[in-house]
Amino acid sequence: MSRTLLVFIFICLLQFGCDSQAAKNRNANIVENYNRAVNKPGGNANDANVNQANANAEKANEEVPTFENAAEALARGNVYFDTNRVKQAINAYKQAIQFDPELAEAHFKMGVMYALIEREEDEKPILPVEEESTTKKKKKKPEKRASEKHFENAIKAYKKIVAKDRKNDSAYFNLGRAYNKLNEDQDAEKALRKATKLKPENTVYKTELGATLIKLARYEQAVRVLEQAKKLDDANSRAEDLLVEARSGRKRVNYGKDKKKR
Hints:
Elements: H1 3-39, H2 45-60, H3 70-82, H4 86-99, H5 104-123, H6 146-164, H7 169-181, H8 185-198, H9 203-215, H10 219-232, H11 237-261
Helix pairs in contact: 3-4, 3-5, 4-5, 5-6, 6-7, 7-8, 8-9, 9-10, 9-11, 10-11
């Protein structure tokens, strides 16, 4: 073998060794940088999600304390209500009602919480059940749901409040909302009209009345009320959405009337 060839082979081996070492160094740097990123606070992108999930789980399993009076139980129940902790809210409101069986707000908000649970149950798939026999059986009257019972109790309680204080606009408003939950829309309209009469500048009252008028297919009236609500508060997005629905309903009704005239 010539001396020139030996020198060439030696240079190639030397170059290969250097390249391999450089590659190893690069890989080591990559691993080290990754470890630093994972171990430093906020380095792992999943950390925030995991921590949030753990926090939510702790909230969901939080034990509800025993309260000493209705006001304390109601206040804590409202905190649970606003943060969508259904079981804890129900527990707190139950305690509030034990202190004051006619506490309207507790009954109303318990109705809302139970309605959420019932809606989830309704959305579950129903498995087919085999009929036990072909003999005729008397159909049992369906039991009232927990939400319905509490909305009814809320109505009774709010009616007592307005009977004592005819100028209590908030009680009339909540009475209307409770009627709405039971789809008793005509009674809801009456209560909400009294609330808006007492506080004509309240955009929330007018918006709720507008929504009820839509349910009653009284679109022309709904448009007028919702336009007033929007004028009182231009940022009232619910009134804006309902106004679109009311105008659309009015258009359909007018089209039907025009078609009959032809």
